[in-house]
Specification:
The structure holds 2 protein chains of 2 kinds.
Chain A lengths: L1 H12 L2 H17 L2 H24 L3 H5 L6 H32 L5 H59 L3 H11 L2 H29 L3
Helix pairs in contact in A: 1-5, 2-3, 2-5, 3-5, 3-6, 5-6, 5-8, 6-8
Chain B lengths: L1 E10 L2 E9 L4 E5 L6 H8 L7 E6 L2 E2 L5 H4 L2 E4 L11 H11 L5 H10 L13 H12 L6 E5 L7 H17 L4 E6 L2 H5 L4 E6 L2 E7 H7 L1 E5 L1 H6 L5 E6 L4 E5 L2 H7 L4 E4 L2 H10 L2
Parallel strand pairs in B: 3-8, 3-9, 6-7, 7-8
Antiparallel strand pairs in B: 1-2, 1-4, 4-5, 9-10, 11-13, 11-14, 12-13
Helix pairs in contact in B: 5-6
The chains are: A mainly alpha, B alpha/beta.
Chain lengths: 216, 281
């Protein structure tokens, strides 16, 4: 698995121009936007860049050679999740460093940042987990091009479901938000962590099945 | 070292059905046209695709029992598949060090220098010949016990092919226990390299022969229609009608040389053998 981590790290490192651009835009954003936008922007881009390593594996019939190396299919799936989630955490930490610098420079208000940060990070974690747990199986099953179409369809379906839901149950949104506000923060953290673990476990199992059945 | 028994793999419009053995200390060639089933066989041995039935043994183990550690002893070149083209050879060295305990970095770097491979270049920036050399060097870089080389010389000019074949020959000479299965549709590549070879056509092995025997005992007999009528046909493997009469393939050159001294009897190269095996009757 060490070799797989090294491969993905080097693929990511070779996109140094993109990485520099992300941080340049991030720093520019930090001057005009709230910390939430900055953290979300850098965290999501980090996640998407790491997800992109799947496309590099797939390109030019790459899977065939990859699986001829001393790895097994299961360890490929596990490494992919660890690498993508790990990279996202690193990017999030970097965004926090930028936030810290901006706070020290007086651009951000320290008190506000400390109050908002936990819920902000928790929400972002939830979004990233959902994105990874849905996108990775789709990428492995259908490849980069087809999976993009399925993701658009899925997003559209979620949008339509949200719209129909809001028409059928107009007061649900307000009740949901007030319910969250009344729930102790520790319980919310617990629910999100359990959801993240269960969702990722299911997603990993689906991916293992997909990759086990794949023929190259 | 490698045994393939009654292997069957079916795709729409194609069926691979073969038996094959690569003992230790031997270089076995796999010859066939494009689409004959060579790559499918390699991929099945490497578990990149699954057989419908049959059995494959590698290092004396069933393929399902092959571990990641066992895979360290396999050197692989696959036609049209390699490391991501967006990384440099320096990156590949770092990756190989992580994957293979026996990766010999110094030797690999020396060979790269010998073959003028710039290690700071990305793989996509290399020419076809350079990519092929890199792929073979990688397969030979970690003291693999068996080489599975699918079309290692495809798309190369004569000089580049010679370089690659020399590399393989040198590697095999270092340890007599090493084995290799090498495919090519360029038969002359294998004629000088392989101890024996299998000919595959439409997914089936149609011939297995020792290279020495092929070069000494196989013959092409060119005869007129009249001569053909008088010819003893019991040792003829294939016959093809030509403008001058018939071209016949036999694996008993001596017999025809002794009994028909006036006939045109030539040694058969692999190319002519393939042609007659596929087109003769």
């Amino acid at each position: 698995m060490k070799g797989l981590f090294m491969k993905d790290f080097l693929i990511l490192k070779n996109q140094s121009k993109t990485l520099l651009m992300i941080f340049a835009i991030g720093i520019a954003m930090s001057l005009t936007f709230e910390p939430a936008s900055l953290i979300f922007y850098i965290g999501m881009l980090g996640c998407l860049l790491a997800l992109g390593t799947i496309s590099y594996d797939e390109a030019d019939h790459g899977y065939a050679f990859l699986f001829s190396l001393p790895i097994n299919r299961k360890s490929y799936v596990i490494e992919k999740y660890l690498f993508i989630l790990g990279s996202t955490v690193v990017f999030l930490l970097m965004s926090l460093v930028i936030c810290g610098i901006m706070t020290a420079m007086g651009v951000y208000d320290k008190q506000n940042l400390l109050e908002e940060l936990p819920s902000m990070l928790l929400a972002l974690l939830l979004i990233i987990i959902v994105v990874c747990d849905v996108t990775i199986p789709l990428r492995l099953k259908y490849g980069s091009e087809k999976s993009r179409i399925y993701l658009y369809l899925l997003s559209a379906l979620c949008g339509v479901a949200g719209f129909v839901g809001s028409k059928l149950f107009p007061s649900f949104g307000a009740k949901f938000v007030s319910g969250i506000e009344q729930t102790p923060f520790a319980l919310i953290i617990g629910i999100i962590v359990v959801f993240a673990i269960v969702s990722t476990f299911i997603s990993v199992k689906i991916c293992e099945k997909i990759i086990k059945e794949k023929q190259f | 070292m490698l045994k393939v028994k009654e292997l069957k793999k079916t795709y729409p419009g194609f069926e691979l059905s073969c038996d094959l053995e690569v003992p230790a200390g031997r270089i076995t060639g796999l010859i066939g046209q494009n689409g004959a089933g060579k790559s499918t066989l390699f991929k099945t041995i490497l578990q990149l695709c699954y057989p419908d039935s049959g059995n494959i043994e590698l290092f004396g183990k069933d393929l399902k029992e092959i571990t990641e550690k066992d895979k360290q002893d396999i050197g692989v070149v696959l036609a049209e598949s390699q490391f991501s083209s967006y990384i440099t050879i320096e990156d590949v060295i770092k990756i190989m060090k992580c994957f293979y305990e026996a990766f010999d970095e110094t030797d690999f770097r020396n060979k790269c220098a010998q073959f003028r491979l710039d290690t700071h270049k990305k793989i996509k920036e290399l020419s076809t010949g350079m990519k092929a050399k890199l792929n073979v060097l990688l397969a030979l870089s970690h003291k693999a016990k068996i080489l599975l080389l699918d079309e290692p010389t495809v798309g190369l000019d004569v000089l580049a092919r010679d370089d690659i074949l020399a590399m393989i020959r040198e590697y095999m000479a270092e340890d007599e226990e090493r084995a290799a299965l090498i495919s090519s549709h360029i038969s002359t590549d294998l004629e000088t390299l392989c101890d024996d070879f299998y000919m595959i056509h439409d997914g089936k092995i149609i011939l297995h022969e020792e290279t020495d025997r092929l070069l000494s005992d196989y013959a092409i007999i060119k005869v007129s229609e009249e001569e053909y009528e008088k010819l003893d046909k019991k040792y003829l493997l294939k016959v093809k009608k030509e403008a001058f009469g018939y071209r016949c393939l036999s694996d008993q050159r001596e017999f025809y040389m002794n009994n028909y001294p006036k006939l045109v009897i030539e040694r058969s190269g692999i190319d002519e053998l393939i042609e007659l095996m596929l087109r003769g009757e």
